[in-house]
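[Backbone geometry]
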Amino acid sequence: MSQTDAEVFAAHRGRLFSIAYRMLGVRADAEDVVQDAWLRWHSADREGVLSSEAWLVTVATRLSIDRLRAAKAERESYTGFWLPEPMIEPLDEHTPEAQAELASDLSVAFMWVLERLSPEERAAFLMRQVFDYDYAEVAEMLGKSEAACRQMVSRASDRVQQEKVRFEVSRNDHQQLLQRFVAAINSGQQDAVRAFIADDMQFVGDGGGKMPAFPQVVRDPDLIAGLYAKFSQAGKTEYRLVLLNGQPGLLRYIGGKLESVQYIESDGQQIKGFYVIRNPDKLATILA
């Protein structure tokens, strides 16, 4: 295989990973899809390929759909709520690769909503609304009619809009809110913590059956404020700000050991959603 062909694949590798991770929510599965796409590219007859990007994106999208179908069957037996495996970067690390992977439409809250879509709906929605392919291109990728793709994207868009998980908040404003929130937590004062939490908040926990987690979505801000205050009062609790799926988030350490990854959705003024990952399998690759 010529170096030129390898370079062509390398030029699109970041986009392929971005698609696969948004589809699957697991870094290792996304990397497997990229590797499978590479193997197919390596052995393909490219004489009739008009666009290498279109060919590779189509392959990665269809591989992701197939893998997500299998994953959904497995997740039906998952204990409690399933949240995506988090991608963590230091707040001060802004390499071009990190910027490409950690874009705005990668939040844990956003991907939590995507879990409710069928694999094909999720692919159609992402290709059109996140990656900005036109309907003709989406139809070609999915092997569907344009009308069918428009219908899938419309249904998915309605679902995302109903959940109201995306707010136009700058990274700097969100980071400052989290810093003030952590200061309130460290004070151990429940009222100080409660002031940061919106009345219409929700709390989703993922313990994977291996760590305690709420069995339902919690919508009681007083309960959540009390829990955060108690964690601080117990001592040996530390919060660290990181870049979590493209937005500032929190790592919570208890006794020096990572206990949870916390994506916190805000409107810039108050916290609207907590998405807390405690499953140790999803924390294993995060460095202390």
